[in-house]
Design goal:
The complex is a heterodimer of chains A (302) and B (261).
Chain A (H helix, E strand, L loop, with lengths): L2 E12 L2 E12 L3 E5 L6 H8 L7 E6 L2 E2 L4 H6 L1 E4 L11 H11 L4 H14 L15 H12 L6 E5 L7 H16 L3 E6 L2 H7 L2 E6 L2 E6 L1 H8 L3 E6 L2 H10 L3 E3 L3 E6 L2 H10 L6 E5 L2 H9 L6
Parallel strand pairs in A: 3-8, 3-9, 6-7, 7-8
Antiparallel strand pairs in A: 1-2, 1-4, 4-5, 9-10, 11-13, 11-14, 12-13
Helix pairs in contact in A: 3-4, 8-11
Chain B lengths: L13 H14 L1 H27 L1 E2 L2 E2 H32 L2 H6 L5 H29 L11 H22 L7 H13 L12 H10 L1 H14 L6 H27 L2
Antiparallel strand pairs in B: 1-2
Helix pairs in contact in B: 1-5, 2-3, 2-5, 3-5, 3-6, 3-9, 5-6, 5-10, 6-9, 6-10, 9-10
The chains are: A alpha/beta (302), B mainly alpha (261).
Chain lengths: 302, 261
């Protein structure tokens, strides 16, 4: 399989702050690749280097076979960008936003119009075509940004937190669109801190923390490797903690709850209930969120 | 280290940025047009005829004819400076328009240059509107005064790039009050606009001619509209051309320094 984006020893330094710290990754063509991590992990900075709007400090970064430093214009020509912050042009209507954006890619007026209507259909905003941007809901704005990102028929689509702040309907609609783009052969790079989003969409992902990539794999692989099949949740009490430490169980401690990783959830929960005399026990399937919390620690940093 | 006078990488795509601003302008043309038409008329009557009643004439010129070219130049200055400060800052900082554009094949140098060219165009549009007013009142000589139109683009370019330098430096939009009170207002008053510079102390005259683009713009314009030159027209034109190019380059590089991190 050919490579869409590859980074070697990629570093970004702002004054004294190392935002991206010697990371390596390879994104295959036609896969959905996720960057997960807490706020400030370096995800957006990495995206901005791929987008050629923030120059890398050291290392190499090849996008679609092109060195971002040598020919950023050609790189930007084949990328579609959904930025974290809405930056639609408030001076224009929905349709005009797409037409003006197409113009930046030197797309002819006639072709721009054809593609704009095609994209408005795709994101179901046809009825809103003459509405000004500030009259759109949050979900509509995100959909329009997605439509805008597709106006140049990109081979690689970069989505920086595409569904942050959206309601479930809008979020599912965006996911749907992303999956249908994958079917059309687009490579999708996505940052998110919604674990459900990453599990549903990503073929492979990396988890970043403090500028470094700390883990890499498919969602299933990562769950199996770090957590196992199930998680047993119990209230955090000295008795429970004593029990768990004695038996050498693998767990993650939170202020009020303890998450115990278990291959045999029934055995563990009955043990907790009988021996540790405890009854508020929940058994559930392990998820990417468990992996995430385990690897990035639960402390709130900012 | 970014060299602030290095030649920016500019392609013809700059025009797309200019076109974006033109499209917004055309959408609101009626709101843009009427104040521009009204302002010089108010000044002409309020100051030209009002104050002119007492002043009568300066160096043989009726007062209203003396200030007519200055009013055109002030409009060039204000429109270009406003556009590249407040208007560009809003697009850069609040609307994130520049961020959106640099995700396309355009680079930041082209975005800023497009903004500057648009600000110079605004200067030309507004100067032309006022020229129409003063011509219809027969306050300027024709056809010589038509040369004010190309001049207004050059003057606009100088003020747009000065404004853009401030835009690259201010942390918040309120900070534009500093250049307005410390630079634009004194320039507005002491550039031979409402009275000849010759009545000012010699040191101030020298400073004006050294650092005020408006002084040169007024000098050339007054010569075009009345035939009277207060100092060398060739030198004034040379001053504007020589200053326009490095200032434009400087402002583009300063903006790049601010925005590309």
């Amino acid at each position: 399989m050919s490579i869409a984006i590859s980074a070697e020893d990629l570093t970004k330094k702002f004054d004294d702050f190392l935002a991206v710290d010697h990371i390596n990754f390879q994104i295959n063509r036609n896969e959905i690749f996720g960057f997960l991590g807490p706020n400030g992990a370096g995800k957006t900075t990495t995206m901005k280097m791929i987008q050629c709007v923030s120059p890398k400090t050291t290392g190499s970064l090849i996008v679609n076979g092109i060195d971002v430093e040598k020919d950023s214009r050609s790189v930007k020509d084949i990328l579609g960008i959904v930025p974290q912050e809405n930056n639609l042009d408030p001076d224009f209507s929905v349709l005009k936003n797409l037409l003006v954006y197409a113009r930046y890619y030197n797309i002819s007026e006639k072709e721009a119009e054809r593609r704009s209507f095609e994209q408005l259909d795709f994101v179901q905003l046809n009825e809103k075509k003459d509405v000004m941007i500030d009259k759109l809901s949050g979900g509509m704005k995100r959909r329009l940004i997605l439509a805008r990102a597709l106006i140049n028929k990109p081979r690689i689509l970069i989505l920086d937190e595409p569904t942050t702040g959206l309601d479930p309907q809008a979020r599912h609609m965006i996911w749907d669109k992303i999956l249908s783009l994958k079917k059309e052969g687009v490579t999708v790079v996505l940052t998110t801190h919604y674990m459900e989003e990453a599990s549903q969409l990503c073929d492979r992902l990396v988890i970043m923390d403090l500028g470094k990539i700390i883990e890499e794999g498919s969602p299933q692989e990562l769950i199996q490797k770090h957590v196992g099949s199930h998680v047993v949740e119990v209230d955090n009490t000295p008795a429970v903690m004593k029990c768990l430490t004695e038996d050498g169980d693998k767990y993650e401690e939170f202020a009020n709850r303890v998450h115990v990783f278990a291959a045999e959830p029934e055995e563990l929960s009955s043990k907790l209930m009988k021996r540790c005399n405890f009854d508020k026990v929940t058994v559930r399937q392990a998820s990417l969120e468990d992996v995430f919390l385990k690897l990035t620690k639960k402390a709130l940093r900012d | 280290m970014l060299r602030i006078f290095s030649i920016p990488k500019i392609s013809s795509r700059t025009y797309k940025v200019w076109l974006r601003n033109k499209d917004v302008f055309m959408k609101t043309i009626k709101i843009n047009f009427i104040p521009q038409l009204l302002e010089p008329i108010l000044y002409l009557f309020g100051i030209g005829y009002g104050l002119g009643f007492f002043v009568r004439e300066i160096d043989g010129l009726p007062y209203v004819e003396f200030i007519a070219p200055a009013l055109i130049c002030i409009s060039m200055m204000n429109s270009a400076f406003f556009e590249s400060t407040f208007a560009s800052f809003v697009r850069m900082y609040y609307q994130k328009t520049f961020d959106a554009i640099i995700n396309t094949p355009l680079n930041i140098e082209e975005v800023i240059f497009g903004e500057i060219l648009w600000a110079a165009t605004k200067s030309m549009i507004n100067a032309s509107i006022i020229l129409l007013v003063v011509s219809s009142l027969q306050l300027v000589r024709l056809p010589e005064s038509l040369l004010l139109i190309p001049l207004s683009f050059l003057v606009g370019l100088v003020f747009a790039s000065i404004g853009m330098c401030f835009t690259s430096l201010v942390p918040r939009i309120e900070f534009f009050n500093y250049p307005i009170f410390l630079l634009i207002t004194p320039m507005y008053l002491f550039s031979g606009t409402f009275f000849p510079m010759s009545i000012l102390p010699e040191q101030i005259q020298t400073i004006s001619l050294l650092i005020f683009p408006l002084a040169h713009a007024v000098n050339i314009s007054r010569w075009l509209t009345t035939g009277i030159a207060y100092s060398s027209i060739a030198l004034s034109l040379l001053w504007l051309v020589v200053v326009a190019v490095p200032l434009t380059i400087l402002s583009i590089n300063l903006m790049k320094k601010r925005l590309i991190v």
